[in-house]
Amino acid sequence: MQVQTGYIYHIKDEFFDKINDKGLMINHENGRSRPTYFTIKDKDILWFIPLSSKISKYKPIIDKKIKKYRSCKSIMIREIANKPSVILLQNAFPTLEKYIDHVHTINGAPVRVADNLRDEILENFHSLLALKKQGINLFFADIDKIKERMLEEIK
């Protein structure tokens, strides 16, 4: 499988069983393969950013952050595949290609976000990583620990 930044994928349960980090979202809910993940390819590491359809749950959180901090880069609401989607950058985590279950498709075609949205997500994600380096961690999962485990698996 050729994994590319900007496409949407599903991840195997095996990853969640192995990592067991309380900051990770649940992979399955009500028997459905969820959530889907926007993917960033960074050399051998993949960054997965969960997507959600729960706009009403996250809109007030975004509004509160904007009121307090004047912006919100950790959660975005944008249209993906002609549907409003919540992009949960705060829930991002690193993984490896071997943990990808399949690419998300609609009518047999792989789902890819528009280039301008892909660029906006990348910009916000890199902002969150830069804040983390400065000691301001907005990620829920222990991304350093998970990344270290993924890099050990590559060796």
Could you describe the 3D structure shown?
By secondary structure, the chain is an alpha+beta fold. Helices cover 34% and strands 30% of the residues. The protein has helices spanning 13-19, 55-69, 115-133, 143-154; strands at 8-11, 28-29, 32-33, 36-42, 45-52, 75-80, 83-88, 93-95, 100-103, 105-106, 109-110. Strands 1, 4, 5, 6, 7, 8 and 9 form a 7-stranded antiparallel beta sheet that branches. Strands 2-3 form a two-stranded antiparallel sheet. A two-stranded antiparallel ribbon has the order 10-11. A hairpin with a 2-residue loop joins strand 10 and strand 11 (109-110). The mean pLDDT is 91.
Question: Quick recap of the structure?
Answer:
The chain is an alpha+beta fold and 155 residues long.
Question: Can you give keywords for this protein?
Answer:
single chain, about 160 residues, alpha+beta, seven-stranded antiparallel β-sheet, two-stranded antiparallel sheet, 4 helices, 11 strands, about 35% helix, globular
Taken as a percent bin, the fraction of beta residues is 25-35%
> What class would the helix/strand composition place it in?
alpha+beta
Order of helices and strands: EHEEEEHEEEEEEHH
Given the structure, what is the number of helices? 4
**Major β-sheet profile:** 7 strands, antiparallel
Low-pLDDT regions: none
Helix content: 25-40%
Question: Mind telling me the C-alpha Rg?
Answer: 15 Å
Distance between the termini: 21 Å
Mean pLDDT, to the nearest integer, reads: 91
**How does the overall form come out from the CA principal axes?**
globular
Q: Find the count of extended strands (DSSP E, 2+ residues).
A: 11
